[in-house]
From TrEMBL:
Residues 38-73 form the Adenylate kinase active site lid domain. It comes from Smutsornis africanus. The keyword Glycoprotein does not apply. PANTHER family: NUCLEOTIDE KINASE. This is KAD4 kinase. InterPro entries: Adenylat/UMP-CMP_kin, Adenylate_kinase_lid-dom, ADK_active_lid_dom_sf, P-loop_NTPase. The keyword Kinase applies.
Amino acid sequence: GFPRTLGQAEALDRICELDLVISLNIPFETLKDRLSARWVHPASGRVYNMDFNPPQVQGVDDLTGEPLVQREDDKPEAVAARLRKYKDAAKPVIELYKSRGILHSFSGTETNKIWPYVYTLLSSKIPPILSDEEN
């Protein structure tokens, strides 16, 4: 997400005024497991997740048959360190937007369970776009 640090939030303030900020609260273990299950095809950037979007053949890209790699920062130890660092850096950002009354937080572990709530919030803030046929 963005902004991730207070400095980024302050820089963003200089170019636009936010009226809605969404924070997704996902348990640490869920994030660690998902990121640690991510593998990529370096040449194309295609991303696979061994839990919910695995390649057809373990360890190889579906289109080229070339080997997949796990990025160093997606290995479990690195993910844990990244998440701790993110939590520390993001806390003041969350507090800033909470104090402005524009923070909306959603908690859960599954996208398909969180998304309907996020969609409802966004739908209430953004008018629908009508096609030419509807106008």
